[in-house]
Request: fold
Amino acid sequence: LEQVSALTGKPEDMDFAQHIADEAVTLVRDNGRMLPLLKPEVSSPGTGTSDTDPNAEYRLVVIFLAEALEGTNGHEFEKALKLRRPDAKTYYFDGRFSYGAVPEVLKAVSEADQVVIAAYVVHGAARQVMVDGKLVNSFGLFGPSGRLLQQVLADAPQKTVVLALGSPYLIESFPQIQTYICAYAMAPTSEISAVKALFGEIQSRGKLPVTLPGVASRGFSLPWPTQQPSQ
Reply:
């Protein structure tokens, strides 16, 4: 999946690559409160006020997280997102730089109705890190990015979806995740597939290619919800 864009160029090749990415997306956990995300109406009934009113509160917050964001990370995701939710507020954060300091991000999370974390996690072996004086295995998002994800999950676990773009093992380090989607790659096709899945536009039959100890076995997947969740 990571190399598919570079190895294909014709429109039919790209269509096939997108199809493969769409089919791979896997729903691993679902708390029944988030999916599928709503698309806003063009205007608020009786007011004529657009949902993209700059004075309106942001109801959907999306945070792009990585240890080190690459130049293209999030671009296709955000483009696809804004086509569906132009009101969404986005933040990019990797500890080296961010468009919005941590307090600003956490304030936006507290005020949002829905939060999406798009986590870019490189495939690789677990690393041992010290947490509260204990040596534990960690599967990605170390340092500031990991601490920010921990804080979001502590403050708003029920209204947060975590998307693993790359390694599916991220949840091993953050078992408190309540709604978890795996896309397995950081490629633009996988970003687009992830957005389509969030809004219920695809019913992927993707299954976990690995076992996530304590979470789910290889071959596992949940059916994608087709009705709007009750709030």
Remarks:
- The first strand starts at residue 26 and ends at 29.
- Residues 24-36+56-198 form a domain with the Rossmann fold fold (CATH 3.40.50.1700).
- The CA atoms of residues 87 and 200 lie 18 Å apart.
- Residues 11-24 form the longest helix (14 residues).
